[in-house]
Fold this sequence. Notes:
It is a single chain. By secondary structure, this protein is α+β, with helices and mostly antiparallel strands. The protein has 2 domains: 3-245, HIT-like (HIT family, subunit A, 2-Layer Sandwich); 250-417, 2-Layer Sandwich (HIT family, subunit A), CATH 3.30.428.10. Helices cover 24% and strands 21% of the residues. Keywords: Carbohydrate metabolism, Galactose metabolism, Metal-binding, Nucleotidyltransferase, Transferase, Zinc.
Amino acid sequence: MTAQAAATTAQFDHYAPGTYAAxxxxxxxxxxxxxxxxxxxxxxxxxxxxRKTRELHDPRPLAYRFAPHLDADGNEVPYAAPQMRRDxxxxxxxxxxxxxxxxxxxxxxxxxxxxxxxxxxxPGDPYQDGEVPDSxxxxxxxxxxxxxxxxxxxxxxxxxxxxxxxxxxxxxxxxRCEVICFDPNENGLPADLPVSRLRTVVExxxxxxxxxxxxxxxxxxxxxxxxxxxxxxxxxxxxxxVYCYPFIAPKLEKELVQTQAYYERTGGNLLHDIMRSEIxxxxxxxxxxxxxxxxxxxxxxxxxxxxVAPLRDVLTLDELSDQERWDLAQMYSxxxxxxxxxxxxxxxxxxxxxxxxxxxxxxxxxxxxxxYRLNLQFFSFRRATNKIKYLAGSESGMAAWVSDTTPELISxxxxxxxxxxxxx
Length: 424
């Protein structure tokens, strides 16, 4: 079967599209020149129908991603697989990926790249090191060229010890890192995308969760979006990422400890009961539709923080129904727009909000997953139009948060921007 034929009849081992995606979204897989996986996700009817097809050939002369290379002295050295070490004081795994120092940066004062590797290919442009083979796309997904974690074929994942001392465990950081580009417009904003495009992004999150959950060694799948130069975004393009950890990340581990203890004490689901309690309290609810509710948590840390939860008990993104995926796209769109309006610059236009959107979903193998619940934690470092919340001594040194505002004031500002009921 040719590559093109395989693309038009793509079948996946674990992802099964719902009714809407089966009729309105087409996934076309291929591989980039260095062997990384790449997927087009099209919602354009001409590509969905098959009347048009995507470019599957990556013309770049890239070496195989795991090939040996020559060092400064001309000696052949093996691919430097990312390592991770366990902090004996906290139990946390710390990936160490030196190859990321060479990744391109095209925004901010430290910019190193004149072109945008996330943009569609521009025939004739002097910059031809972009990651997308075609000259246009809707949504694309691909393995990160400079991953923090990656499984290297044939490399041992056995536990070793730094300096042969059992205090310091060391392993390969055998995870996976992917990039999701939301739109080909490299100067666009996620907040300006139509709900239909964000619906395709939601499908991308579900697709990757379903497939990656069955890959060897993966314990947690974390889709997220960084937005804004102050956050540390290195590429100015509407995109997100999916980090797939070979361990349970510290934030989720803390939540699992709490949710499991709550279940053992009460028999209930802590995240479910938090959501219901917020609905009953009412004061901090900022949005609601058929399937989702958004609220400022009663113990919010950040100067702008909103948690988004499905009304139905759901463990992971791939468990969402068609209706829930549409309602999530609508709510996410509304949240981004209202986030941009949150800080008043005096002209009534608001500002492009810097934020992190972090999906917390149940771990893959841990038994405590049964008592967890899918949720989105959306927050911003910005505390005023011209001020950033810096994590200084108390937050960074002791992880003891000091809030600059109150959850009630945050929700009050959201109520000024728009109504709670956002159903059409």
